[in-house]
Design brief:
Length: about 350
């Protein structure tokens, strides 16, 4: 009887989460197609989706694995340029190029992490910072392949290929991938591998004494973060249509780290919310010109003073609890209207 109840509860929760995910993907998609959401707003929302993917990439390494990274956007640049090279120069189909590019980024993450993660301390932060600068300099100087400092146009562009489907197609693909990443990570973190990674984050000595391979799980977390960063770059290339070496810059990586700090180290949903809010806020405050760049430091100072753990801390937004609490909330609203 207890097994039947557990199975029924799991099925119910799965159906609720599936419904919410489909709602989040297809309702805005339909509104964009119907021109209820204009092209500019759709562009900002979709760009926020890419920023959210990069925030998740940083959070997997810094928040969940517990290793500071300062050059995560180098993997985004690798993913973007590899997608462009394979699809535009080599001639591979775009979907295949977008699958291979994150694998290349993950392989580079493995090469960097293998010697670095065996050491104690913040060596990974120094190495990733140097890796980001190396990637940027290499991209600037390989003018024949990358277009040099001015970047290179990517002929396969979601926005350019179809003015009618461009914005809605971009949203559907990028937000759909974002939802899949969140679902994958939420399930992964509940598995034995995810719990081992979090055990290493909390106390390496205690984890090692319990038989957990500290190096193995640090490496696993870093490679997954690199892979997700590569996915962000693979989506960035056809969405923006112009790729520049500045994509791998230190400032870009710090922006992604700010999303994580504001959303909460270790909170996937917190990072996603922070990425969407700050991306839209930057566009909304564009009338302030360069003064809007002061926004991040001011917000960061306020958060560090009044809520140092970030928006959600290490907690996750529970859609199941929100759904279960919806009837009581609607009941309270109706009672207030009656009064």
């Amino acid at each position: 009887m207890k097994n039947i109840q557990t199975y029924g509860r799991q099925t119910r929760n799965t159906l609720i989460l599936t419904g919410i995910a489909l709602f989040a993907i297809f309702l805005p998609f339909s509104l964009i197609r119907a021109n209820v959401i204009n092209q500019y707003t759709a562009y900002v929302i979709t760009l926020a989706g890419i920023n959210a993917i990069m925030a998740i990439s940083v959070n997997v390494v810094s928040g969940i694995t517990g290793q500071l990274t300062l050059g995560q956007c180098a993997f985004e640049a690798v993913g973007a340029y590899m997608t462009m090279i394979m699809a535009q120069d080599i001639g591979l189909p775009l979907p295949l190029a977008m699958i291979i590019a994150p694998l290349v980024a993950a392989f580079l993450g493995f090469l960097i992490g293998f010697p670095t993660l065996k050491l104690e301390g913040d060596y990974l932060a120094i190495v990733t910072l140097a890796f980001g600068e190396i990637i940027r300099v290499v991209l600037v100087n390989l003018k024949g392949i990358t277009g040099g400092p001015n970047g290179k146009s990517f002929k396969f562009s979601f926005l350019r290929d179809s003015l009618d489907w461009g914005a809605s197609l971009s949203y559907l693909v990028i937000i759909g991938v974002l939802v899949l990443i969140i679902v994958f990570l939420q399930n992964f973190l509940r598995s034995s591998y995810g719990r081992a990674i979090m055990a290493v984050r909390e106390d390496e000595i205690a984890a090692a004494s319990s038989g957990v391979s500290v190096f193995k799980y640090k490496m696993l977390g870093f490679v997954i973060g690199s892979f997700i960063g590569g996915i962000g770059g693979a989506l960035y290339a056809p969405f923006i249509g112009l790729i520049k070496p500045e994509l791998a810059s230190f400032n870009n990586s710090i922006n992604a780290l700010i999303f994580v700090v504001l959303g909460g180290m270790g909170s996937i949903t917190g990072s996603v919310i922070a990425a969407f809010v700050l991306t839209y806020m930057q566009e909304f405050l564009r009338f302030m010109q360069n003064y809007r760049l002061l926004l991040y430091p001011v917000i960061l100072i306020l958060v560090m003073l009044f809520r140092p753990q970030g928006l959600l801390g290490m907690k996750e937004l529970s859609f199941i609890k929100c759904w279960d609490g919806l009837p009581s909330l609607l009941k309270k609203i109706n009672l207030k209207k009656i009064k």
